[in-house]
Amino acid sequence: MQLDLFDTSNDLTQDNNKKNSEQGTIQHPLESEKDEILALRKELSEANYLYYVLSSPQMSDRDFDEKMHRLQELESRHPELRDNNSPTQKVGSDLSNKNGFIQIEHRRPMLSLANTYSEQEIRDWYERVCKDINYEPEIVCELKYDGLSISLWYEDGVLTHALTRGDGTKGDDVLNNVKTISSIPQTIPLSAGNTMRTFEIRGEILLPWKEFERLNKEREMNEEPLFANPRNAASGTLKLQDPKMVAQRGLDAYLYYLLADPMPAQTHYECLCKAKSMGLKVSDAIKVCRSIEEIMQFIAYWDTERKTLPVATDGIVLKVNDLRLQRQLGYTAKTPRWAIAYKFPAEKQLTLLKQITYQVGRTGVVTPVANLEPVQLSGTIVQRATLHNEDFIRQLGIQEGDKVWVEKGGEIIPKITGKEAGKRNEDEYNYQFISVCPECGAMLVRDPEQAAWCCPNEDHCPPQQKGKIEHFVARKAMNIDGLGEETIDLFFNKGLIKNIADLYDLKAEQILSLEGFQQKATQNILDSIEASKQVPWARVLFAIGIRYVGETTAKKLSRTFHSIEQLENATIEELTSVEDVGTQIAQSIKQYFANENNQDILRRLKKAGIQMEQTEAQSGQLSQVLQGNTIVISGTFSHHSRDEYKELIEQHGGKNTGSVSKNTSFILAGENMGPQKLEKAQKLGVKIISEDEFLNIINNV
Ligand code: IVH
């Protein structure tokens, strides 16, 4: 059997047995199964939280489903241990108190689907249904879209609410974000025969593969954590506070479940056709099947064909077509009996781990990479896969020469999930992470925050030096054209540039002396370097590449610290009072300025004419009415977004901070103000000002 990275369910039982025999006590089987039930409930609840609330799962879908099935099996053997709070009895909740959306009760519970990876279990389900109703009913087969479920309410032809599944009973209303999705109509045209004006339709919000890849590239450049798959990216996007940012992400949607009173037809299929005719986006990959053979053919066809689709799918959903039969079959606590999902297995292959090599990134982090005997997986040849860090390798217990499992499932990035079982005794394991930098020979140091080994030689280690230049010239940073990775490599190797300040000393003759550089290309590069002197302070702050200061953090910092000097002189406390800036970022900023080499680069950049401070025009100062006021923003607003309020506070001379303290002048509170902030404000006697009151203050100057 394959050793799965995060699968600890078996370990739990083994641990219990070991503990019992060591202590010399004999435990009743019920005791250990009870322990296992409790442990699985805890583990699955935590996994649900990471998946639905934080959009950052740590457990693979497959492991989650296996553990859930194991828990179901154990609970059915022990009805006396029944608990309505068990993850088997309720759907995973995406509700979070922090995101400021209004929560609304679903008109009908938003359930999940029973699922299986086994074709036999699909046959069993079909047989059960046939037996229950005494004949072979029509089954609608659809693709199972791997996004996040949404419930859209149309009232009198107008989209009025868009609720996430939440805890199944109530969901977050993310209407303003959903309104930015072009495939979801905001109104249903009143055309002839269209009598259904008030209804609910449920479906899935998705981030197409292309958008997902683009977004992750952008995040990589900003040193923000990457999304593991499009589903997490879509759910992270939908929970953003700013609809303008959502609009830029290119979300899409497919709708698959209509609820209306009265229903417009007697079958699920006809209801979907009706929805489609009204301009709602329903997939074409739907078939009414009349036998188990037809169902199996549909599954087999889409198992391969789905790879050509622009969005992620993870299985097939089977639904009884006749609505009357659906009512007859009914529901369990969490799922309808009239539907089931067949989930596609992740493709995996066993292959040789030939060598572990090490890559040094621009911040010095050393990433181990698995070099594999090439293997075909989901239509592509895989020969390299990241091993993340030392802990990851040790958890898998792998080393060079092992046969390892490579998997490509919902995640497009192939991952190593284990080694071939039973090939080596644990005492023969002798993997050692490298101790010196493979690029410059410096002794590596372990970053305690990140489980990562780093090369500390940031000023002289070539990939770090080149990486910093690549980051500096990038579109979202200084936007210097004509300097791709290869050109930077060439200029660096020829000794033309060693750091970002050297770019501003480049001379035409130096570039022209290199092979392949004509007058025009050379002039383009120099013009683009010259133009970068107009790039505003916020982007310069991002471009200089302070560790952990991504694009958004740089923007936030630049709103409070209007020049490089102000930033340099800020205390840790002042830095951490900026929203989203924690001690790790604050310390990194301090370290950056403590480095003599960075100081030298900053001096040279300033001398070259780079914008190291906010100009009058950039600050867009409107008044000083809020001067001396430190203002906290909380809740959701109707007239402007939170970001716009931040900007308005600064444009009127105030300062925006993230947390309430005795120094807070007042709280600008929208609807659903965070309960913690409210409590703290009341305790400290901080004034709370409504959106309208605030607009009155700034508009009356
Ligand atoms: S029907 C009461 N149809 O899968 C049944 N769900 O794992 C309502 N999903 O919560 C759901 N594609 O978010 C249905 N064609 C499809 C689907 C689909 C994806 C999602 C949905 C559901 C989850 C269950």
In a nutshell, what does this entry contain?
With 701 residues, the protein is α+β, with helices and mostly antiparallel strands.
Question: How would you explain this protein's 3D organization?
Answer:
There is one protein chain. The protein is 38% helix and 19% strand. It starts with 8 loop residues before the first helix and ends with a helix. Among the domains are: 3-81, Helix hairpin bin (Helix Hairpins, Orthogonal Bundle), CATH 1.10.287; 354-447, Beta Barrel (OB fold (Dihydrolipoamide Acetyltransferase, E2P)); 462-534, DNA polymerase, domain 1 (Orthogonal Bundle); 620-701, 3-Layer(aba) Sandwich (Rossmann fold), CATH 3.40.50. The strands form five sheets. Strands 12, 13, 14, 15, 16, 17 and 18 form a seven-stranded antiparallel β-sheet that branches. A five-stranded mixed β-sheet has the order 2-11-10-3-9. Strands 5-4-7-8 form a four-stranded antiparallel β-sheet. The relative contact order is 0.07. With 701 residues, it is α+β, with helices and mostly antiparallel strands. The chain is built from 26 helices and 22 strands. It is globular.
